[in-house]
């Protein structure tokens, strides 16, 4: 342990952080050069600290240099948080240092630091590596990371789960929980909007715990205190995600973002999450418990007004002047999620990452979750819905059979396509 501590002090006072990331930790130089100097310094500290902790755990004077798990978060708030929570659980299980990529785009207009606290650790054990995250707001093109300059593509194993990029497949599972020999000497990069899977599977409790350890910034905490209704633990949470992709966000082109099968499945479940299904379930709860009140979070202000008219004096929610993906609206959305998490029962929308994360943030597993189209509001599927469901099953089956880990040739091909399209890799 003393040897490792000396190594830590000498490294931080020696060559530049960028040089050490490249020479000691095999991070491709083009990737390291694209990171801010503060991020390089923080990553060097965390990687070296992880070396110390791993050596102490192994009872050895030295260990192989630690590696990164780079989490490139995609899509909206719920999607990003489930990737982050599962990624942090994966990093902790495999003794990797997490690097979070949070880019603003049409889905998300807020920086990470406008929603959650971030910082760089100076003291502390392994927990400090996960409570003080290194977050960057831009990143080189994922397929160009490992092929930059003449560096070996074996330095990074990359996984892309996004339909919009090269037909990514969910079946590309990094076996990092076991920290297998295949990946042990490589950094891992994952670009995803979905709960990460591994073999063996990540414990649900571990993923949920990572989500609950994220600390909202002061502005969000103040908004929670100011706007959240009293008595949330006795209320029923209602989250309605009903907008079809075509009218969800004017800034997002669904035809470019999602595959045909993926879009069909999403719209199928949003059709099952319409106001009448929730209103019927809410009416049944009021009939069974006349004192029942609801905290309502919806994607359509008109729907919230309709529920308020149908259940006068029983619905509560946050009042806001925005309906976009900007920083202010995203802070309200996070408070919505936190409020839903504190209710005793959650009536949620199936296939919604927002509902999923609200349930994961619940402080106790005693919260009951019921999903539209599954536990209530079930209806006979029309032939279009049946066809969409069948298409989704076929899509997933084909993806599992055809998916292969990315190769150097795939990286090169992707880079060439980007250059042909006139897109310069960062």
TrEMBL record:
PANTHER family: NUCLEOTIDE-DIPHOSPHO-SUGAR TRANSFERASE CONTAINING PROTEIN, POSSIBLE GLYCOSYLTRANSFERASE. Gene3D superfamilies: 3.40.50.11350. This is O-fucosyltransferase family protein.
